[in-house]
Amino acid sequence: MLRTFTPGLLAVTILLGACEQQTSQRTPVTASVPASAPAESAALEYEENTISVTDESQNGVVFITRRNQMPGTGMDSSEAGEDASGQDVTGTGSGFFVDDQGFILTNFHVVEGAQQVTVHLPDRKREFPARIVGVAPEYDLALLQTTDIPDDLYDPLELGDSDQVRVGAKAIAMGSPFGLEFSVTQGIVSAKNRVVPTGINGIPQNSIQTDAAINPGNSGGPLLNSAAEVIGINTMILSPGTAASGTGQNAGVGFAIPINTAKAILPRLKAGETVNVPRIGVTGIPVALLPGEVRQEFNLPDDGVLVQEVSPASPAAGAGLQGGLRRLELGEAALLMGGDVITRIAGQPVTTLQDIQTALVSQQGGGTVELMIQRDGETRELVLNLAARNVE
Fold first, then answer.
1. pLDDT above 70: residue 353
2. Per-residue model confidence as pLDDT tens digits over 237-246
């Protein structure tokens, strides 16, 4: 699964299968170092922490195998390729236990379209069947459950607080790159709140950037801090080039879904829901794209989104948001003028419809969000009710 991500004019390949967040309030896992240890003790302590985190966490990580059937062909399709002979094709990924009820978090793209999902643990040759409980395709998250693994064979991982992530802190990625089961790599948190297109619709979302090596097969695996807490879910990498096989390669720039994003929707995933990013129900055009004389004629601000249409029975309609009524021919385009201009949502400035969607990523269905608009040159505040029935 590859995507093209173009920052500026440089086209690079985003490979689904990456990284996540960092620190929390637990005490870092440490190993004792003799008081008489020489100057290299600091380095040894750093190494011992990595070993301790690995030892503590490895029984909570799973290797995931899936089989997909290509519609109408009877053939399977996966990240591992397609078999023209019609034989089963297996795709692989990673995941981790979040509790003692057998629930496993992973990426949606790891299990997308799966007809069969199996998991196994480190040093366990036997595969265990798992079922897909809930999915969040636009967040690239999925929740599995297996009830066949005795609970004394695995240890759920501790979920940290990704809001506390610090740039420069240790980041440990665990997973199965290229099918090399239960590999461990180490790096740092390179950046926080890095916005990258995520999920099946490529909605820009905050992520944690890391230089811990992440490759195909790491998707869905945990990114941990020095306290052995999960701070993110590895999901994609930037790859400026690909191997001869066409597969993207690690270049030291990986991304993880913040664990707080997963924690916020975890109850809904456990309830078997398909969770999507909330939508408010409007179409619009960035004001900045309009000629200056048009903005002046209609008393529009320099930035914001000019609402064109409002969907009936949507959160926007319920809040009283108004679309345009006067048709304006602008070259080959036809616009509706006179509608509201959205300038802020959830406290974030708005210049494009994408800004609105990005701000809604962290909102939950059934909650409310504040919207700042300009109407007839006056600033107003509206409250959107993201009722669950209007979210999908």
1. yes
2. 876 655 555 5
29 close to 232: Cβ distance less than 8 angstroms:
no
Strand partners of residue 78: 81
Same fold, 2-6+10-30+42-57+158-259 and 60-153: yes
CB 382 within 8 A of CB 371: yes
The token pair at 179 is 């099918």
Number of other residues whose CB lies within 10 A of the CB of residue 136: 24
- Residue whose C-alpha is closest to residue 287's, from 353, 382, 348: 353
Task: Write the CATH number of the domain with boundaries 60-153.
Answer: 2.40.10.10
Q: Which two tokens stand for residue 162?
A: 């990704």
Does pLDDT of 287 surpass 60?
Answer: yes
Contact 210, 186 (CB under 8 A): no
Which pLDDT value is given to residue 46?
A: 86
Rounded Cα distance between 140 and 200, Å, is 7
CATH fold for domain 2-6+10-30+42-57+158-259: Thrombin, subunit H (2.40.10)
Which candidate, 276, 187, 277, 169, places its Cα nearest to that of 237?
Answer: 187
In angstroms, the CA 126 to CA 76 distance is 22
The number of helix segments (H) and strand segments (E) in the chain equals 7, 25
**Would you please indicate which residues are annotated as catalytic (active-site) residues?**
109, 140, 219
d(CA 242, CA 125): 32
Look up residue 365 and give its amino acid.
Answer: G
Record: fold of 282-391: Pdz3 Domain (2.30.42)
- Look at residue 37 and tell me whether its pLDDT is greater than 90: no
Domain ranges of the chain: 2-6+10-30+42-57+158-259, 60-153, 282-391
The type of residue at 58 is: Q
pTM, full prediction = 0.76
**pLDDT band (50, 70, 90) for residue 78:** very low
CB atoms near residue 181 (< 10 Å): 18
